[in-house]
Write the structure tokens for this entry.
Amino acid sequence: MVQIEQDILAKNNTFAQANRQTLAQRGIFALNLVSSPGSGKTTLLCKTIALLGQLPVAVIEGDQQTSQDADRIRATGAPAIQINTGKGCHLDAHMVGHAMQQLDLANSSLLMIENVGNLVCPAAFDLGEAHKVVILSVTEGEDKPIKYPDMFRAASLMLLNKTDLLPYLDYDVDAAVSYARRVNPTIRVIQISATRGDGMDEWLAFLREGVAQA
Amino acid sequence: MVQIEQDILAKNNTFAQANRQTLAQRGIFALNLVSSPGSGKTTLLCKTIALLGQLPVAVIEGDQQTSQDADRIRATGAPAIQINTGKGCHLDAHMVGHAMQQLDLANSSLLMIENVGNLVCPAAFDLGEAHKVVILSVTEGEDKPIKYPDMFRAASLMLLNKTDLLPYLDYDVDAAVSYARRVNPTIRVIQISATRGDGMDEWLAFLREGVAQA
């Protein structure tokens, strides 16, 4: 089984390299958004697109079933493609390469890839992105980084989301950040509330800087 | 790849049948608790054990890393074993069979198996349990049943958890139940708040009845 897994990952990495090359040539800053189901990724994307103004954004949505998320993104005016993985538990670089071809990507733009909600399997699959961004909502408890360490190790940035709910929870923000740093000492953390707007300035600055440097 | 997947599932099903036979012979009611990370499974288990009184309960905990959950369970006085899956995204019947041998299981008792937090992969793996119970927290949004239909189809019971947070959310309980019924018309739904105690009577009655009939 180890050999089969290595073959799958090697094949994936070849496609990921091709995606990365295309993105670099066109100055596109691509992020791979990973999290548990229900951490608020799609709401975050909709709010982000609205706030980015003139900066062009395209979105690839991954889910086992339904096109609900792509429909929500398209309602903002941004182009979006839905990938349904069926039995599959993660996006792979081959699927993403096809979706990139179908999307009308602008040069010097942002590409957001919303992975299947799963804190385990997407950690192993490079899609050609600049960074994995892990979204952890405060309703999920503090200990997720040490219980699912591969994902938090693979991510460059953790968005600690739904901070508007903190007054109603018994939640220790410092503990969550400290757990994340224990598995990944260099991970950057931004506390946000996508629904209320807290922390969005810092997140938008990260995105604008990424596009400028892509 | 399809052949390999079938081989893995066939092998798993053989172990699951052996577990099921052992459980039936000893009158043990076993549940496989599945959900996203952070839905509140461990808190629910701790509260449930405290409320069950004299009914013997043992717990098998699945996580990629750490023994935090088993430690929390053992603090209640119930026997618990932690399985760390490492890179793995789900428990399988072979792991559970070994854990059952190590646990000091009482006849006519309850065995709770807390799977790895993942709404995708554990759906395909029978552990020998009487039922899969899917926990959906209201902070995860209403649409998870249709986006992760395999899991909600595989479960007999959905616990809609964290209802104490409903006043602070824009959440439509009827929509969540209706989505669950769309993929699984016979699924039973109990609304609970493990932290506040709402709905626990109905859940405990389900458990007591299951043990009585096992």
Notes: The radius of gyration of chain A is 16 Å. Chain A touches chain B at residues 4, 36-38, 63-66, 68-69, 87-89, 116-121, 124, 137, 139-141, 143-144, 146-150, 162, 165, 168-169 (CB under 8 Å). The CA atoms of residues 31 and 203 of chain A lie 12 Å apart.
